[in-house]
Amino acid sequence: MNILISNDDGVYAPGILAAKQAVEDIANVVVVAPDENNSSVGRRLTLFKHLKLKQCELEDGSKAYSVSGSPADSVIVGADYVMDEKPDLVITGINQGVNITSDITSSGTVCAAFEAVSLGLPAIATLLFMDPKTSFKKDENGEWYMDYDFDLAKKVLHDIVLKIKNEGFPEGVDLFNLNVPSNYESEEVKITHLAHKMLDKHVIDKTNEEKSEIFNYPLKDNQDGDDLIMIVSDLVKEYEEGSDGYALLVEKRPSLTPLTVNMTFKDLKDW
User: Fold this and answer.
1) CATH value of 2-192+239-259 in 3.40.50.720, 3.40.1210.10, 3.90.320.10, 3.40.50.970
2) pLDDT tens digit string along 212-250?
3) Residue 137 pLDDT > 80, yes or no?
4) How far apart are the C-alpha atoms of 51 and 166, rounded to whole Å?
5) Hey, what long-range contacts does 225-232 have (CB within 8 A, 24 or more apart)?
6) Domain boundaries, the chain
7) Rg, C-alpha atoms of the chain
8) Is residue 188 a contact partner of residue 134, using CB atoms and an 8 Å limit?
């Protein structure tokens, strides 16, 4: 089995190494990812422009490739150029964050998986939700750091890929969207559907006292005298049972959502 791994956090992000380690015992793995963070770029493509492809080294000393483009670019370059033959599966991630509900279409991680599907390749987009209450810790010098605990995400990803290797991808499913909580109460994976919404988005300016710290950092001098505004978002707290948001944020267990890329509504005969 040949697997291509990419992400949107960049080739040196800790999660891409975790993804490689999760499946390297059951597959031949090639890592091709953006050379820098490309979060929330959706399915952006770099067309008719040169891309820089460089061989690099991951933290464990293994070989990888960086691309001066988007996550979708990286999947195309990896599958069509770097690898000697088309991969049997594409994994994007493991990224830090949360990709649930219809907001997944802004995610570079999920849209890189969409790009894989457009190439005729099944894919798994994988996210680790870092619980802010438990993931931020202080070292002996009092400095804050992020505690990346990929153990459960690696285990779940390994088991899913092994099942795909042995049984094939389920019929009618184009890709899986996998979200794993860092602060989990159950290791049992739940098959879910997309919830309606993940983020409440709104615009603030310098008059917003509640978000003043976010707005002012980093705030550069406005030489042109234009109004400075910022789009901010808050995570939705209520989700319907059976949805990805409910499994991940309420039940605190891994959520696996089977997706298809065909968004067509088929029955409009009575309209």
Assistant:
1) 3.40.1210.10
2) 777 766 655 555 656 788 888 787 778 899 999 999 999
3) no
4) 36
5) 229/203, 229/204, 229/205, 230/203, 230/204, 230/205, 231/201, 231/202, 231/203, 232/201, 232/202, 232/203, 232/204
6) 2-192+239-259, 199-235
7) 20
8) no
